[in-house]
TrEMBL record:
Record gene name: raiA
An example Gene Ontology molecular-function term: ribosomal small subunit binding
NCBIfam families linked: yfiA (TIGR00741)
Region Disordered, annotated ranges: 96-121
Localisation: Cytoplasm
Designated name of the protein: Ribosome hibernation promoting factor
Amino acid sequence: MEIVVTGRHTQIKQKFRDVVESKMNRVTAIAPDTQRIQVVLSHEGNPRLADTAMRVELTVIAGSTVVRAEASSIDDLSALDLALDKLTLRLRRTRDRRKDHRRGYESIQPVDLGEAEPEVHEEEEYVPQTASQAVAGDLEPGESVEVQVGDSPIVIRRKLHIAEPMTIDEALYEMELIGHDFFLFVNSETNRPSVVYRRHGWSYGVFEIERAKNL
């Protein structure tokens, strides 16, 4: 199993790397087929957000299955513990769901709008732009861009993914894997761009998009 630890806007201390190495056995105990664990530590420079200044994003890759979790706290080690608790819970849910519901489809790589970029080792340079400029321009598949809107603390990330068509049930499953409250996909039954989202309890909703016809 490969463990990759990277930092964004912060330096990775050896103590943090050592703690990560020692705690990842919690992951392999639940998901022994794990091939790669990506750990991204990032720092929020805004002093008003000191209580959540450190954020840890964990991504487990086991074949074509991807499970994610993230958490923020006042320091890196407590953020790691919080994220790891969330991750192990989702891994258990995934394992139990596989046992209870034998699916006849191959798990599809999830479209994760907030996916960490573990290959980035240097700080990204934010270029002040307007909100419309932040989502404009062409991107290659898998390429992402982050821009800061003017002098505000708002940062917008845009990333292009190639989406495989799937059913609503499959989209809900993938949403649970990455731990988001929504999931963007192409509905294989209607061929429309769609979003499933969590409402409350075990209640979910679905948005489908249809281009308006010119009258």
